[in-house]
Amino acid sequence: VGVFYRPLEKIAAVIETYPRGIAGFRRYQELLATEPEIADAPDAVDAPALKGDIRFEKVNFAYEGGRQILDGIDLTIRAGETVAFVGPSGAGKTTLLALLPRFYEPTSGRITVDGLALDQMKLNSLRRQIGLVSQDVFLFGGTLRENIAYGRLGATDAEVLRAAEQAQLGPMIATLPDGLDTVVGERGVMLSGGQKQRVAIARAFLKNPPILILDEATSALDSQTEREIQSALDALAVGRTTLVIAHRLGTIRHADRIVVMQDGKIVESGQHGPLIAQGGVYARLSG
Ligand code: ATP
Q: Are 119 and 44 in contact (CB under 8 A)?
């Protein structure tokens, strides 16, 4: 029995740990080998079921030995809000959101969720409540069902099927020789970029976290696929605090709030219309 359960334990550990740092944030590849990089404080508590009220208070950050990347970030996000982060490449969007699952610690300042400082919570109990949908999805050489179930260990077949449908994988599954039991990845059916993204979305539906981080794909998808994925993501965001790292501006027009970053600072924030009218950085990025 011990031997049988081993691989499951390994996967469970992986789901709770996430890969290390920004590279890992974007790529799940290396994740099988990672150890939790931050030890819990001796008095850390299990995070309660979070609502997802997030506050960044005077947050500064520099990578080890490097220049300052985040400079005095103050930001309050209400539970259930969808906030899109935009700005030139290198502005610090990804770095800011990587602080939330604690891939890195702020150099100074504080981040709280529901009033609890991140470092007061046990890391695993925090990360269990944060979903991550990124452009680089880690697929292993098992069936599509196993790849989706990776979102939450112990999910039933019915739950996996439902998540697949929520991620709009249904039509694709119908074309596969063995449906959900088709082997995908290296030795199986190769999935397209759009299909892989939907697997990531299905995993997030299964995980059902109160906080969601979406690292929008930079790779081009055809416009039909893009619309389908956007509608699956919109459905996924409902009822969750959703932070979107936006690489294209078209998809975030309807965000509750757009936060514009430049050189590690928040330089503007608001909704699309008023930001355009303001004629500042966002308006220039949109032009
Ligand atoms: P993009 O839109 O290109 O994804 P971004 O706004 O998300 O950009 P970040 O990825 O947060 O920006 O990068 C901000 C800065 O931090 C960049 O100058 C980048 O080179 C640097 N940086 C990112 N990761 C690391 C790291 N692991 N070590 C050192 N510097 C890093």
A: yes
**Distance from Cα 90 to the centre of ligand 1, integer Å:** 5
pTM of the model: 0.87
Question: 27 pairs with which residues across the strands?
Answer: 136
Question: pLDDT of 117-170, one tens digit each?
Answer: 999 999 889 988 999 888 777 788 889 999 999 888 889 999 999 999 999 999
**Which protein residues touch ligand 1 with a CB less than 6 Å away?**
21-22, 63, 66, 69, 87, 89-95, 247
Q: What is the ipTM of this complex?
A: 0.97
CA of 104 relative to ligand 1 center, distance in Å: 13
Distance 134 CA to ligand 1 centre (A): 15
